[in-house]
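Supplementary notes for students who missed Thursday's class. We covered one full example, reproduced here. Read the sequence, then the structure, then the short commentary at the end.
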Amino acid sequence: MSEGRTPVVLVHGLRASRTMWRAQVTALEAAGRTVVAPDLPGHGARLGERYTHAGAVDAVAAAVQDVGGRAVVVGLSLGGYVAIAHAARHPEQVAGLVAASCSTRPHRAVLRAWGAAAWGFARLPDRGAAVNQWLVDRTLPAEGAADAGAGGFALDVVEDALREMTVARPLEDLGRVPAPVWIVNGRWDHFRGEERRFLAACRDGRLVVVPRATHLVSLVQPVRFTRVLLEVLADVDAREALARTGRS
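Structure (token representation):
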């Protein structure tokens, strides 16, 4: 760990992998940060493994341990829900939490509908690869699409992930997180519906809305999103320094 610089753990979204964070990893490392972006079970280098919510939380905990045992944890979409759960279960590991693109509770009816669609796509001859690529190409800029797909797409994990999301309790978990929390959403994100409720659940929270961004905010607006992270890290570093001074 660089002296006085809090490490960062980046947690990817559903179907993607650690490669979706390329722009942020490059920028944060250039700023002198230690950065790790793990693959969750069933994704990236862990394709073929069974996805579980508990296993995903364990993957984040292991990544934080790898960078020294305490970090700012940043999660997007599925990774955001996982990061929230991790922060509630391992508060000692979290100096700050960025929960991006995950400001809607995972209602069972919605999960069932998405699960039914995933079931249908999974039974196409290509397991839904063509549909997935069509969506990626039309919703992301070229560089973002390349980063999202560089680690392969986990097409077979969607049904398990949606089923596992029924155990997620993000509002309750946010209330257990003592660290500062940043709720970050793209202005046009369809997961923004309950962002004020998520913010109110935090002990110490703030809301950031990124202009001209949709759900995959870090890929659609990578520079703006990285600027948010740098501001978060400056804030956390100052808090951590103050805490060390108070303990000395």
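Commentary. The chain has a mean pLDDT of 91. Residues 222-247 form the longest helix (26 residues). If anything here is unclear, bring it to office hours.
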